[in-house]
């Protein structure tokens, strides 16, 4: 989305070219009525809030060793609780079971989705 190439930023919607990220964002807000306000200059991802952008920078582009990360796959997380939930993906254990049919899931949200369609 609007990655910087040779000093220009491209609009992903109309391929317009802009000399700065700010000019591209202003173009997207006024011409395309975009609600995105901040763009990462390193990868082009856009955000609706500066806090989302700062979180992205911390996780994806920081060399900060204090950022929680998975020692199995290397993925970085914004909090230890998100890392804890992620670690369950690497485990063979299941944590949540459907009360109707007994099928097991690693995430509570998965068993909730399953419960809607479970016929037993």
What sequence of helices (H) and strands (E) makes up the elements? EEEHEEHHEEH
Helix content estimate? 25-40%
At CATH level 3, the topology of the domain at 4-61 is Double Stranded RNA Binding Domain
Q: Strand fraction band? A: 5-15%
Mean pLDDT: 79
**CATH architecture tag of the domain at 4-61:** 2-Layer Sandwich
Largest sheet: 3 strands, antiparallel
Number of strands: 7
Low-confidence stretches: 1-5
Shape: elongated
How large is the radius of gyration? Answer: 20 Å
The class by helix and strand makeup works out as alpha+beta
Strand order of the largest sheet: 1-2-3
CATH class of the domain at 4-61: Alpha Beta
SS element count, helices: 4
Terminus-to-terminus distance? 45 Å
Overview in brief:
Helix content is 34%, strand content 12%. It has 120 residues and is of the alpha+beta class. The protein has a domain at 4-61: Double Stranded RNA Binding Domain (2-Layer Sandwich).
Description:
- This protein is of the alpha+beta class and 120 residues long.
- It has a domain at 4-61: Double Stranded RNA Binding Domain.
- 34% of the residues lie in helices and 12% in strands.
- It is built from 4 helices and 7 strands; from the N terminus they run βββαββααββα.
- The chain has helices at residues 21-31, 50-61, 80-87, 108-117, and strands at residues 4-5, 8-10, 17-18, 38-39, 46-47, 96-97, 104-105.
- A 3-stranded antiparallel sheet has the order 1-2-3. The chain has a two-stranded antiparallel sheet with strand order 4-5.
- The longest helix is centred in the middle third of the chain and has 12 residues, at 50-61.
